[in-house]
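lol ok so funny story. i was supposed to be doing the assay writeup but got distracted and ended up predicting the structure for this chain instead. priorities right. anyway since i did it might as well share w the group, maybe its usefull for someone
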Amino acid sequence: MKDVQTPFVSAQKHPSSLASLRLSLFIARRYLRSKHSLNFITVITSISIAGIMLGVAALIIVMSLFNGFQSLIDRFLIGFDPHIRISTATSDNTPSFSSWIQANDSLEAVIVNALQPLGASQLAPVASGKMVCINGRSMQPFQLVGIEEARVDAVSGIRKTLVTGEFRLETSLQYVPLVMGASLADNLRLVVGDTVQLLSPNAIEAAITQAVQPKMIRGVIVGVFQSNTKEYDATQAYTSLTAARRLLKLPESAAQSIDIRLQDVQASNSAKTLLQQALPTRYRIETWFDLHRELYNVMRFERLAAFCVLFIIVLVAVFNIFASLSMTVAEKRAEIGMLKALGAPSSLIITIFFSHSLLVGLTGTVLGAVLGIGLCWGQMNFGWIALDTTRYVIPILPLYVEWQDVAIVCTLAMILALLAGFAPARQAGKIRSALALLRKERI
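and the output, tada:
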C-alpha cells in the first residue's frame, strides 16, 4: 500500500522553506476551519474578518467619493479658469490689483517664447476690478472682468456656460455690455435686455471728496452664464476690455492679469517654472491649482479626516485578530507542545500563527476590496444613488475609483493584520513541549 504522507512528514523529509510554508498554511487553515462546535474564538475570528471587510469596503467607497467630487470640481474649474495667470505682486508676493501690467506685444512675445517647449499656448490680457451694480432699489458689488471677445475662447470656457442671451461684448457710447453670472443676475432681478447703472470705485471716491453726485454709467445685460461655481456665478460679470479700462480708469494696453491656456493642463507646473525663469520677480505666476489652493486644502483635510475615522473600523478588527490569536495560543498549548515534541522548531510554530493572521487579514481584505469596488462600479454604471437635479448640478452621486487608493488601503489592512499576529506568534514559539504536555496530563 502506498504511504500517505502528511504535510508535517513531508516537511521533515524535505526541509525547505516552501514545505515549511505549506505546513504552516495547512495547520493555520485547520485552525480557521475547526470541525468542532462553534466556540468563542471562532466567533471573534469571524467578527475580525467581517470588520476588516467592512472597513476596507468603506474606505474604498469614501475615497472614491472624494475622488469623484474632486474630478467634478476640476472639470468645472479647469473648464472655466485659465491654466496660468500672471499678475503683479507686492513685496509679500501676493497679487496686487491696484497696480497693472503693461500688456504690450513685447511682453506677450516673451511669454510665448518661454512656453514654446510645451507647445502652442494662448493668452489674453484681462482687466478686472470691483464695481457696484444698481437696479432700482437693489444694489450689489461685483467683480467686473474685461476681456477681448476675440480671445475669450482661447483662455476661458465661459462661452460654453452661457444659459441665455449671447456673449457679445461690442462697446458703444450709449451702454456697457455685461455678461453676468446667474446668481448675481437673480439677486438683482435682472434678465437679458435689462439696463442697470454701474458705479466705479473712482466715481464713489470723487463723490465723497468733492461732495458731488457720483457719475453713473449705463450698462445692459446681454447674456447670463452659469458655471455651477458659486465663486463666479454670484460675483462676476464680463464686459469688453476697452470698457473695463474706461470704467476702472486704466491706461491703454494696461491689464490686471494675463490669462494663459496650454495644450496640456498637466504641464501647468512646468509652465510656471519656465515663466518664473523668463519674467522679472515683480510678476506673480499662479496655476489653476494656486488660484483655488484653499478649496483644495479643505478637500484634502476632509479626505484625510474621513480616512482616519473609517480606518478605526479596521483597527478594531485588528484588535480582534490579536485577541482571537492569543486565545488560540492558550487553547492549543498541548498541540503546540506535541508539534515541538515531534521535532517542529520554534520558527515553524511562529510561522503557523503568522499564517493564521495572514489568512484572516487576506480574507477580510479581499472580500472588502471586492465589495467596495463592486458597489462603486454599480454606482458609476447604474446610478443607484440619484440626486435631485433641481438642487444639484449632477444627476447621480459621483464616484471615481483610483487603483492607487485601493492598493494603499489593502496594503495597510494586511500590514496591520500581520502586526496583530506578531505578539501571539512569538508567545507560541516560546512554549516548551514538556511543560505543555505535562499540563495536558494534569488536566
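The chain has two domains: 7-74+296-442, 84-288. The mean pLDDT is 84.
back to the writeup now i swear
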